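Page 47, continued from p. 46.
Same chain as before, 457 aa.
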Amino acid sequence: MKHLTALSLVAVLLMPSLALPAQTDDAALMAKAKRIHSHVIPLDTHNDIEPANFTPECNYTMRLTTQVNIPKMVEGGMDVSFMIVYVGQGPLTPEGYDNAYKQASAKFDAIHLLTEKIAPDKIGLALTPADVLSLHKQGKKIAVIGVENGYPIGLDVKRVQEFYDRGARYMSLAHNGNSQLSDSNTGEKDGYSYNNGLSDEGRQVIAEMNRLGMMVDLSHPAKGANLEAIKLSKAPVIASHSGVRALAPSVSRDMDDEQLLALKKSGGVIQVVGFAAYLKPESPERTEALSKLAAEFFGTGAGAGRRAAAANAGGEAAASRPCPVEGPTTTARVRRNPYAAFAATLPEEKRDALMKRLAEIDAQYPAVPRANVKDLVNQIDYAVKLIGIDHVGIASDFDGGGGIDGWDSTAESFNVTLELVRRGYTEKQIGQLWSGNLLRVWGDVQKEAKREQKAAK
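Result:
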């Protein structure tokens, strides 16, 4: 310090005060974001579940390793979870439909058990947008039911009514693989069954969904099927968990501008999803290698691994498995590679073989840097600029492969609000993105159903 000039000494003394404005700005931004996050109603339109985590002994009142559960919803300020009745695509046969229906029934029953018997004081089931607001005022977390894949409907359109009566408030007509109702986005690679559109049964199902007040979900069906569904539906449609294809051109699950503009015209909403591979896709070589690996170990594609995990969770293994309560050894690494998570469904020798092959693929075709909250909001920005703030929302696909750096569980939901505030979105706009737009569409779908039911009398 003895060589410090008077001028440099002044500079040193001023350094803390010179840093204060930036620090103050950061603190003010954080405080603003926290205030907004507490004022709005965060709603996530796509969270997968397993019935094994909905039992009296092991359930969402506990802080499980699942990305979504009640403690994590409380921590992240997430108010509403659309819990998903998902069934992977299987054979279009009576046996296939029967098996799918049984899987779907187990998930419906699980959600009702949680909200009616296990934790009715903590979480309630909403059947209308008004229910969402009422339960929120009561200080409860809120579950809503969505159906991913119309496959369990089989060829019996009356099951749409049954699913609605059991609480389903949206349904997609396909998943990965063409269903009896609709071509899938996977048809771009695997081929289509209905000329890139809907089957006659699919058209009947959409009409029935309109009559009942169930939202038509465009996530997973093929582009042609989606455009046809938008034209047929008398009510606005949603994409419950999709990305923007303009920013990830290789991802068939993402919606291109033509679909987005058609969705806007319908009055609908896209729930931009925090799924890393839909925001920043891997190289074609890595994707192909992982697909082959999944086919070898699980059947057909990544969806087969997901089905294997579901079957394991709901089968005999579930009865003897330990409840997956989060502990000090829990990490996010397994979630970042869903194939590694699915390894738990395999016998030990096959599990070791799978992990070895995964390591080889990682070495040969390194993964791209994982998508983060900025990447998610980049897609939100794009959609807002193209179709307007009224037609964009937010989803995660947690426990179904979703998760990004900064939003890897519902406990980190505030980080999305923080980034939206950084980008200049207002409290009103953030409220629209988190829940306002989806609730509006849901309400419009119900109004259309009432009109149709009244006209039919």
